[in-house]
Q: What sequence folds into this?
């Protein structure tokens, strides 16, 4: 049995993990001390939970590892130049396994100094080849914490940076093709710091790593309270599973991606305020305002409009918010002040879903169903007669104005797959912009007129459902090929409405994580 001290320490950590939804890790902590080796594995003596250790890639100085069973600590020394770009060099203590995984450990650099870019943490890796696809959760020597990953053999490494610096505890979760970074400071509950989608086939190599970031050096890290829990791979069959939502930002070059707020349950569709100080999103029929500076979101007073969906957005001057609200069965468009107040009805006929605001602030563009067909319409902000702009069979959706007001971008399935189109504000000159083998939705031009970002589903996905593997893609507004900004678990609610930062260097979106029953 574990000592009382170990049990009390694990009880505190288990309570924090359980409060964050990591029940499997919490249970593992309460069952006893450091995990015993599982039967049936040909394990190297002195490596505790793990089977073996290896230097991966070119490491002029050989790494090593020892397990102190009495303390429950792994002391790992690693060399290697880096874990980055298309190839890696580091020391890895590993086992081969399959299925979903919950990994957690406390990480300490016992020696001060050293290279600021040295890395220690968890890794799930396809093979021991230096260019293998992988996902890791690492703490750098200077405290930088990140979820790093390579999608294809020899492909460039990408990363999602955590908000926390120099955490005490770091965790990595695998749920199907979804990988999530968790981290916590001393005495704190773990926070979800980032999540990505990546396909690794079983079995995989799982373990602890140390990289010196200096080919001629060895760096040492100590891992304690190591928890490795795994189970058969699970897939979501419930069409409405419980989720955790994360508000994220990403730079237009795709290199800086951060989780800025997350919560259990579903929230959707962030708008970035015109002054850059807040995001507006919908949750449970209400609109919330999340400060960029941090803290908890506040409820925006929308009066009687308490059934808001994810089609909402700000006026060019930032003083008004268009919302889509369903007082009965059909969604209608209203306008409320961004400081809060009673709603003013714009479209008496429904269903109507807001999507775009003209640059001069005088006109709203929206998707509406009339006589059994969904098309693009416009209407004056002050109300009045609506104008139908598209007449093609099938669904036309997601209209958003270019910043110069010359075009309305939208998505249409008229040629088979859902593709991005544009037209003049009076509906003339309709032309297809994307021509690929995907389903593309919700195109949003950047305020500086340089970029067009949109949501991409796989070919076989019908509509824009939630809980899908999707991509954010970006292309020059002047023309050119799309490139992938991010791959994520999302879909409906990720980027339905304009979410560009005022400086056009970043945009906001929502990703999701399925919670296990």
A:
């Amino acid at each position: 049995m574990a000592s009382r001290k170990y049990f009390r320490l694990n009880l505190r950590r288990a309570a924090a993990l359980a409060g964050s939804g990591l029940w499997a890790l919490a249970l593992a902590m309460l069952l006893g001390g450091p995990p015993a080796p599982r039967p049936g594995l040909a394990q190297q003596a002195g490596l505790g939970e793990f089977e073996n250790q290896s230097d991966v890639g070119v490491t002029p100085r050989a790494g090593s590892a020892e397990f102190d069973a009495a303390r429950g600590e792994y002391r790992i020394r690693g060399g290697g130049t880096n874990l980055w770009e298309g190839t890696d060099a580091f020391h890895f203590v590993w086992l081969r396994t399959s299925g979903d995984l919950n990994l957690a450990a406390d990480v300490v650099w016992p020696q001060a100094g050293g290279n600021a870019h040295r890395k220690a943490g968890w890794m799930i890796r396809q093979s021991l080849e230096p260019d293998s696809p992988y996902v890791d959760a690492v703490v750098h020597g200077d405290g930088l914490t990140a979820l790093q990953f390579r999608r294809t053999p020899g492909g460039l490494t990408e990363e999602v940076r955590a908000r926390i610096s120099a955490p005490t505890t770091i965790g990595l979760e695998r749920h199907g093709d979804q990988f999530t970074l968790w981290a916590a400071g001393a005495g704190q509950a773990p926070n979800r710091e980032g999540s990505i989608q990546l396909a690794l086939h079983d079995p995989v190599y799982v373990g602890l790593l140390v990289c010196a970031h200096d080919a001629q050096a060895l760096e040492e890290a100590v891992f304690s309270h190591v928890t490795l829990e795994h189970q058969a791979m699970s897939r979501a069959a419930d069409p409405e599973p419980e989720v955790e939502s994360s508000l994220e930002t990403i730079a237009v070059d795709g290199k800086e991606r951060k989780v800025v707020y997350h919560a259990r349950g579903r929230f959707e569709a962030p708008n970035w305020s015109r002054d850059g100080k807040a995001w507006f999103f919908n949750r449970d029929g209400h609109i919330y305002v999340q400060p960029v500076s941090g803290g908890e979101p506040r409820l925006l007073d929308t009066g009687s409009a308490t059934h808001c969906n994810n089609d909402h957005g700000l006026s060019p001057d930032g003083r008004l918010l268009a919302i889509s609200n369903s007082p009965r069965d059909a969604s209608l468009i209203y306008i409320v002040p961004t400081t809060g107040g009673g709603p003013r009805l714009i479209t008496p006929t429904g269903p109507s879903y807001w999507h775009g605001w003209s640059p001069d602030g005088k006109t709203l563009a929206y998707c509406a169903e009339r006589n059994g067909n969904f098309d693009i319409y416009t209407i004056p902000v002050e109300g009045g007669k609506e104008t139908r702009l598209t007449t093609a069979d099938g669904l036309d959706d997601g209209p958003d104005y270019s910043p110069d007001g010359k075009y309305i971008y939208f998505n249409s399935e008229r040629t088979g797959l859902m593709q991005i189109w544009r037209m003049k504000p009076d509906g003339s000159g309709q032309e297809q912009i994307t021509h690929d083998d995907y389903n593309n939705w919700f195109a949003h031009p950047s305020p500086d007129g340089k970029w067009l970002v949109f949501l991409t589903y796989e070919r076989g996905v019908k509509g824009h459902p939630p809980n899908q593997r999707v991509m954010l893609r970006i292309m020059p507004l002047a023309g050119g090929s799309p490139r992938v900004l991010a791959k994520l678990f999302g879909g409906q609610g990720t980027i339905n409405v304009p979410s560009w930062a005022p400086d056009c260097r970043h945009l906001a979106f929502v990703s999701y994580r399925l919670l296990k029953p």
In short: The CA atoms of residues 449 and 504 lie 9 Å apart.
